[in-house]
Amino acid sequence: MQFFPSLKLVRVTQGEQLAAAVEAVGKSFEVLDGAFHQCSKGNAFFGGERVGYLDIAFGCTLAWLRALEKIVGVKLFDEVKHPALAKWMDSFCSDPAVDGLIPETDRFIEFLKLLPGAPPRH
C-alpha cells in the first residue's frame, strides 16, 4: 500500500481497518527509511549535507503526520524502528532553511478544523 492512501485510511477508518492502515503506514516508513539510507549515504539529508528537493517533499508531510497522530490518537512513526529518519526529522525541522516554517501541531489542527468537509475526528 502507498503512503498517502494509507494516511487517508488512518483518518477515515476505525477498528481493524484502522489497525491495518497504521500497519501500512509503518511499512511505508520502512521503505522511506531504506530510501533515506541509500540516498543520504550517511549524510544528514536525503541528498547530502544540505536540505534538497526530497527533503522538502517529505518534510512537507511532517505537520500532517503529527496532526493526524494527535487527531486519531495513534502513533504512526516509531522513532525506535527508524532512528535515522527520526534524526533526519530533527535535522530538517531545525535547519535554518526550514526553522519556523512547520506549524506547531495544535495550531495546525485548528487550521484543519476550518477546512470545509474535513473536521478532525476526536
From TrEMBL:
It holds the Pfam family GST_C. GO terms for biological process: glutathione metabolic process. CDD domains: GST_C_Tau. Gene3D superfamilies: 1.20.1050.10. GO terms for molecular function: glutathione transferase activity. PROSITE patterns: GST_CTER (PS50405). This is GST C-terminal domain-containing protein. It comes from Juglans regia (English walnut).
